[in-house]
Amino acid sequence: MRWVRLVPAFTSVGAHFDREVLSALDKAGVSADLVLTHVEREDSVAVTAVSARITSGLAPGTEIDPPVEGRCARFPGQSILTGVHHVAEIVEATAIDEVVGIGAAVTPDTRVDTGGFVRPEYRDGLLVLLVEPAAGGVFQPAEVEQPHECCAGSH
Amino acid sequence: MSHHHHDGHEHHHHEVEPVEGSWQDPADDRPIAVARRRFLAGLGVAVGGAALASAGAGEAAATPLPTNRWGTPQRWYAGDHHIHTQYSGDGQYTVSQQVAKAREHGLDWMVITDHGGVAHQKFSLDQVTPDIEKARRSNRDVLVYQGLEWNIPGAEHATVFLPPDRHTVDILRAFEAGYDGGILSTAVANGGKGLITRSTSADGEPYALAALRYLESQVLSGRTEIALMFANHPSRRGVDSPHELRGWRDAAPGVAVGMEGAPGHQAAGISKASGGRGGARGYYDSSPGVDSHPGYAPSATENPYRTYGGFDWMTAKVGGLWDSMLAEGRPWWITSTSDVHQVFNDTLTPGPQDYDKTGSKGAPVDSGVKQTGFGDFFPGFYSRTVVGSRSRSYVDVMRGLQAGKVIAVHGRLIDGLDLRVRALGEGDNQGVTLGGRTFVKRGGSVEVTVEVTGAGGPNFAGVVPRLAKLDLIAGPVTGPVTDRDTLSAPGTTVVKSFEVTKNRSRFTYVFKDVPGPFYLRVRGSDGRKLTSDGGPVMDVIADSDPWSDLWFYANPVFVDVI
């Protein structure tokens, strides 16, 4: 399997960015089982780059070595996570290797309300999902799909 | 943003390498030297903490001048420096409605801070100015400042404001046109300047420093008596990096004086089950983005993107970013505000006017239905910034803010706080209060007395809150950091927690055998939500009742050693 790196022309972040990247890959007829985003700060203006592990299709972008870290926008088993799931199920049924609670430990029985939006971190080949306490005795991923946008997101 | 800067000149502050204005200039032992150093410090020349850390031989002759002397006649004035109106694209209220609410809730001063941007600069400014002047005339007992919520180029938002004077509007207009991140990042074709990539991208950082120097130059040239800037909701999106906060402070130390210790929007975390929005307290529900500082990383132990007991992570974390700035020995004050746009359970909704074309939403529309999805409180309803001032005048209240005589209070947790820090034995025996700077002979003792008065009546939730505990926090002053992105002060700890059982209490603590310069500060809690080590708990998204988790934070006192 090959990894490729792309720098999309559009500059948005979060769920909106992910959607554009993933649909661009799909439209190009490329299958990628792992898609990561990376903030690159080499120049004065940071950019979001994408690396994708290609399973089939002719991928755009340049070929690279497997990345060390990133924020994961697509991973095997992601589509299963649509609602509330136990930590044990998340680890067993998806590529996520570990679920880590922020400020509170989780157990295999801990329920995580995914809201259908899961963005684990990729660290040295492992996928780690950070979750935090949420309303109703469950946990939720630390990254939510639609964080509040001040002044309608214009700035 | 995240771009790393290392200012070379900050690296050389040791005794053997005198820099301009250093306390370690061996040739300069004149009594006037201290005054001269203060003068330089006021101009932002690299002096201060580093020298304090190593002050010793050769300095004994000079007696430092304390600031914010304890016992100086002053009164306390409650206010709010972050208020939106119909002249913000996401606001709705008229100026007069906001002033009436502030007055109803007992505020003495308030700042109108609509969002900067192309439409605001072009259309709103000329509409809000007469509204503010009218509100001043009809509410003589509330100081109504004109300000701006500035999009700091490369970073978050900030309150910028001036006292009313002949040039106030001209200065604000020029400042916004020249330096608002929204205008700088908007394409020329759309009425902006097209000079930076995004409002929060790091190519904006030099503009932020130039902006603050511009304001300072307006003060130095006498066009305004004072101008202040407070960074708003600093951790919300992680885009105020530590080096930017330090950069603003050092670029214009008389202007950039602090940040919101607690953001507004405190009703946003009320659960849906309790009839609330079910959002995040303070609207702090974000995660790292492209312009976030990489050091702000959620981990198993913390999430910098959340509030803690309603306060911003930078302020709430003992030994965190705020403490790391104070440990440099330089002022940086905290406040708490409403950031009111749309009020929880109000029936008013935004007017229908096209903001981009007119700079106003028009008059708000009464929907007749309580808006449970709104996340804010009216000015003075929950958050107060209490300021010690000589008089109830526009300039004096701003001087109190500038001097750090400031307490940030939620939900009327306390009605009064008298902090006195003084030397026992050789040193400053009268002592100083909040935001002040005092001194003691090396090896001497420093006495801290805190007199705290609990709420004398119910808050606006109809409950008389009860202060349960007081934390005395202190840490060594270690001088300017070499890494400008430093975000921790490992030497700062809670040195003593006092249990509060009476409505009026007095606590004393003595720092003995003081080895070097340090600072201290006080915070208090209703004790209803505490971690195992007595700190504030990370607020849970969609389940944070602001009234059952009350804190106050007071600004620090610095102690020099002679």
Q: What tags apply to this protein structure?
A:
heterodimer, A: 155 residues, mainly beta, Alpha-Beta Plaits, nine-stranded mixed beta sheet, two-stranded antiparallel ribbon, 11 strands, 14% helix, B: 562 residues, alpha+beta, TIM Barrel, 16-stranded mixed beta sheet, three-stranded antiparallel beta sheet, 12 helices, globular
If you had to describe this structure to a student in words, what would you say it looks like?
Chain B: This is PHP domain-containing protein. Chain B: It comes from Umezawaea endophytica. Chain B: Residues 79-154 form the Polymerase/histidinol phosphatase N-terminal domain. Chain B: GO terms for molecular function: 5'-3' DNA exonuclease activity; 5'-3' RNA exonuclease activity. The complex is a heterodimer of chains A (155) and B (562). In chain A, 14% of the residues lie in helices and 37% in strands. Chain A is mainly β and 155 residues long. Chain A has two domains: 2-71, Alpha-Beta Plaits; 78-141, no CATH class. In chain B, the strands form four sheets. Chain B has a 16-stranded mixed β-sheet that branches. In chain B, strands 15-17-20 form a three-stranded antiparallel β-sheet, with no helix packed on it. A two-stranded antiparallel ribbon of chain B has the order 8-9. In chain B, strand 6 (228-231), helix 8 and strand 7 (256-262) form a beta-alpha-beta unit. In chain B, helix 4 (118-138) packs antiparallel against helix 5 and helix 7 (205-220) runs parallel beside helix 8 (242-251). Chain B starts with 31 loop residues before the first helix and ends with a strand. Chains A and B meet through strand 10 of A and helix 6 of B.
Quickly give the structural class of chain B: alpha+beta
Q: How many domains would you count in the coordinates of chain A?
A: 2
Oligomeric nature of the chains: heterodimer
Largest sheet of chain B: 16 strands, mixed
Largest interface: A-B, 32 and 52 residues
Which range best describes the helical content of chain B: under 10%, 10-25%, 25-40%, 40-55%, 55-70% or over 70%?
10-25%
The rounded distance between the terminal residues' Cα atoms of chain A is 40 Å
Mean pLDDT of chain B: 91
Q: Which fold name fills CATH's third level, the topology of the domain at 75-406 in chain B?
A: TIM Barrel
The 3D shape of chain B can be described as: globular
Approximate strand percentage of chain A: 35-45%
The CATH class of the domain at 75-406 in chain B: Alpha Beta
- State the CATH class of the largest domain in chain A: Alpha Beta
- What kind of sheet is the major sheet of chain A? 9 strands, mixed
At the fold tier of CATH, the topology name of the largest domain in chain A is Alpha-Beta Plaits
- What's the architecture of the largest domain in chain A in CATH terms? 2-Layer Sandwich
Q: Outline the low-pLDDT stretches of chain B.
A: 4-61
Protein name (chain B): PHP domain-containing protein
Biased composition (Basic and acidic residues) (chain B): 7-17
GO molecular function (chain B): 5'-3' DNA exonuclease activity; 5'-3' RNA exonuclease activity
Domain Polymerase/histidinol phosphatase N-terminal (chain B): 79-154
